[in-house]
Amino acid sequence: MTNITLSIDDAVYKKMRKYSEVKWSEFVRRCVQKRVEELESIKSNIFADEKLLAENWLSKEDNLAWKNL
User: Fold this and answer.
1) 10/65 Cα distance (integer angstroms)
2) Which residues lie below 8 Å from residue 24, measured CB to CB, with a gap of 6+?
3) CA atoms within 13 A on the CB side of 31
4) First vs last Cα of the chain: how many Å apart?
5) Phi, psi (rounded to 5 degrees) for 43
6) Other C-beta atoms within 10 Å of 48: how many?
7) pLDDT band at 56 (very low <50, low <70, confident <90, very high)
8) Of 38, 43, 42, 40, nearest to 58 (Cα)?
9) Do the Cβ atoms of 16 and 6 come closer than 8 Å?
10) 29-48: per-residue pLDDT in tens?
11) DSSP letters spanning 4-67
């Protein structure tokens, strides 16, 4: 498995620490995997333009989860 590093705003990190029961690496890993699968599906079914690919891809549940951080 490959490691990556990402930057998080200090304010967001402080809020994340309140939820120590969440495995944040796994959460991000699943978000990335989901996005890759969506992109592969889009590219295999239609010729998508960059604007379409850049649109918000978070579900209602994702938006609610991130809103509370």
Assistant:
1) 18
2) 16
3) 15
4) 28
5) -65, -30
6) 13
7) low
8) 38
9) no
10) 999 999 999 888 876 666 55
11) ------HHHHHHHHT-TTS-HHHHHHHHHHHHHHHHHHHHHHS---HHHHHS----HHHHHHHH
Tokens 């890759």 belong to residue: 36
The pair of structure tokens assigned to 61 is: 């549940």
CA angle, residues 23, 27, 33, in degrees to nearest 5: 145
Q: Pick from 40, 41, 34: which is nearest to 57 by CA?
A: 34
pLDDT of residue 44: 65
- Residue 8: pLDDT above 90? yes
Give the closest residue to 65 by CA, choosing from 19, 11, 6, 5.
Answer: 19
